[in-house]
Design a protein that fits this description.
The complex is a heterodimer of chains A (about 100) and B (about 475). Chain A contains 3 helices and 2 strands, in the order H-H-H-E-E. Chain A has helices spanning about 5-15, 20-40, 75-80, and strands spanning about 85, 90. In chain A, strands 1-2 form a two-stranded antiparallel sheet. Chain B starts with 12 loop residues before the first helix and ends with a helix. The chains are: A mainly alpha (about 100), B alpha/beta (about 475). Chains A and B meet through helix 1 and helix 2 of A and helix 10, helix 11, helix 12, helix 13 and helix 14 of B.
Chain lengths: ~100, ~475
């Protein structure tokens, strides 16, 4: 399994991840090796087999749903407690709209 | 009346239970002694990242007041507990072993933590782990590796390395870990303690930093099956904060522990024993002999899709992780790169500087398998194979009551031994990831030591929600004693 530098750069871009050249080379190499192992999946016959997204167990449907009523949350102060930058009850971020 | 044992490292929950009620010791005295011991011993292993003595003392005072007033302080009253750092603790730093969350102090408690404290447990501190629970050796922590209490040159296993090591070392009586691909059972095996991964949905995941949501579990460590069962009893059950938590009634696990296991049908999956190194294989074989002596009926079974487990797991787990870790973008969680002028550049720089190597590798892999053109070939294919693996277990459980297998191909390896080859590290998870993929309960129970003195655990799997049957078998095995 070969990954081109362009493909690797595109994946890092999708993942919002800045990687140094050295990291990019190392991770691309690791990915190639891991994806080669993953090709083993193609040997498994999955004809007519449903994809399993979640562990399912027998349970009545209704008890898992709570009443849809408002209730107190952690509050603005709690939510902002760990913000690197906040002000006026909001998270502050670098400017996103150019004037 | 006998005096309360002075050796902190050997305390059991049962001793503490009777010691408090017979007034041999107070919860405040336990908290003081346990904290002092844990702080003094921690440099040997680096198992704890943070202590929360004030919180332990506050709970201890409440327990003592309840006892003085003749009230029941709870089944875990006065029991010192440690919590893996990926599990949120209100007001106590929860870094997830990551540089990114170095200063993160959660505004709420995980449900499991809240329930432990309500049962009277004393929260001593937070334990070291692989960054965001990604790893099998605890070497991916941003705050240094944990050393195995049995041999400081070796890893404790991962990712819940700190939670296993502190219980083995005696700096906590019990602890909580998390398991996505073996992160409770493998360190339990490496450190010679009991580690339990309950059925998916048995314990609420609310307050567990999400790694791979369809695979993540919270579960206990203890030095005995009894102590681990006691913790599971306290944390199991429906939680409205986690929609995947089950409303199935929680049985009395402690009542199961004394039961006879004669006639229990045990399956040994042949795929788990082919090519198993003799060092581990001999110990498991002796363990199986013990089960036979207990009257269990042992037969060979097959879990034919085991060979696909590692690729299946690493597609699904990294895909979910790449999505779950997207939230750490420099907006809400403490650390932000300074040198970025646009929002996109800020996200990228923060994540590039904050995540460690293994997280970056898994985010890249997960993003790749979810990207356009590869989604069906990798992600959906892996989900179909996951169905096959789950079906293997369901079919096996039509004929047996429990499945017994090794936890890991080897005992604890040396620090640095596998860090250069990520694929080799992934392959060592082969026997544990199947349990997470199928969502069945599974555990590691100590099965003796290798000639070099390294512990090895035996793994037990049972049907969905049959934790009682699993603990019953483990307790009988523990009582029978490990020969040799």
């Amino acid at each position: 399994m070969k990954i081109s530098p362009e493909q690797a750069a595109m994946v890092a871009d999708l993942a919002n991840l800045d990687l140094t050249n050295e990291e990019m080379q190392r991770i691309t190499h690791d990915l190639e090796e891991i994806l080669t192992h993953m090709e083993a999946l193609n040997r498994a016959d999955t004809t007519g087999v449903e994809p399993m997204a979640q562990v399912l167990f027998d349970a009545a449907e209704s008890p898992l749903l709570r009443a849809d009523e408002p209730r107190p949350g952690i509050g603005v102060e709690g939510a902002l407690l760990n913000a690197p930058l906040s002000g006026a009850g909001h998270f502050k971020v670098p400017k996103v709209i150019e004037r | 009346m006998t005096a309360f044992p002075s050796e902190v490292a050997s305390w059991t929950a049962a001793q503490i239970y009777s010691g408090l009620r017979e007034k041999q010791i107070s919860a405040a005295e336990i908290a003081t002694a346990a904290l002092a011991f844990a702080q003094a011993e921690n440099p040997k292993t680096n198992a704890y990242l943070e202590f929360c003595g004030e919180r332990a003392m506050a709970t201890a005072r409440t327990v003592d007041q309840q006892l003085a007033a003749g009230k029941d302080p709870g089944p875990l009253a006065g029991v010192p507990v440690a919590i893996k750092d990926v599990i949120m603790t209100r007001g106590v730093r929860s870094s997830c072993g990551s540089r990114l969350l170095e200063r993160f102090v959660p505004p709420y408690d995980a449900t499991a933590v809240e329930r432990l404290e309500r049962a009277g447990a004393l929260l001593l501190g937070k334990t070291n782990c692989d960054e965001f629970a990604m790893g099998s050796s605890n070497e991916n922590s941003a705050f240094g590796p944990v050393r195995n209490p049995h041999d400081p040159e070796r890893v404790p296993g991962g990712s819940s390395g700190g939670s296993a090591a502190c219980v083995a070392q005696g700096t906590a009586v019990v602890s909580l870990g998390s398991d996505t691909g073996g992160s409770i059972r493998q360190p339990a095996s490496f450190c010679g303690v009991v580690g339990v991964t309950p059925t998916y949905g048995r314990v609420s995941r609310y307050g567990l930093a999400a790694f791979a949501s369809s695979l993540d579990h919270i579960g206990p460590f203890g030095r005995s099956v009894h102590d681990a069962a006691l913790v599971l009893q306290a944390i199991a059950g429906r939680d409205e904060h986690d929609a995947t938590s089950s409303a199935a009634p929680v049985p009395d696990y402690l009542a199961a522990l004394g039961r006879d296991v004669k006639g229990k049908r045990i399956g040994l999956p042949k795929e788990y024993f082919e090519g198993l190194p003799t060092e581990t294989g001999d110990l498991i074989a002796r363990g199986v002999e013990t089960l036979k002596k207990l009257g269990c009926e042992v037969r060979e079974i097959s879990l034919p899709n085991t060979e696909y487990a590692v690729p299946c797991y690493y597609v699904i787990a990294t895909a979910e992780a790449s999505s779950n870790l997207a939230r750490y973008d420099g907006v809400r969680y403490t650390i932000r790169a300074r040198d970025a002028n646009t929002l996109a550049a800020m996200y990228r720089a923060t994540r590039g500087q904050g995540f460690g190597d293994e997280c970056k590798r898994r985010i890249m892999l997960g993003t790749y398998v979810l990207s356009h053109g590869y989604y069906d070939a990798y992600y959906v294919k892996a989900q179909r194979v996951r169905s096959l693996i789950a079906r293997d277990f369901a079919q096996a459980f039509e004929n047996v009551d429990a499945i017994v297998a090794p936890v890991s191909p080897s005992p604890a390896f040396k620090l640095g031994e596998k860090t250069g080859d990520p694929m080799e590290m992934y392959l060592s998870d082969i026997y544990t990831i199947t349990g997470d993929l199928a969502g069945v309960p599974c555990m590691s129970v100590p099965c003796g030591n290798t000639p070099a003195g390294l512990p090895v655990g035996m793994q037990i799997f049972t049907r969905h929600f049959d934790e009682a049957g699993m603990l019953e078998l483990a307790a009988a095995f523990e009582r029978a004693g490990v020969s040799g």
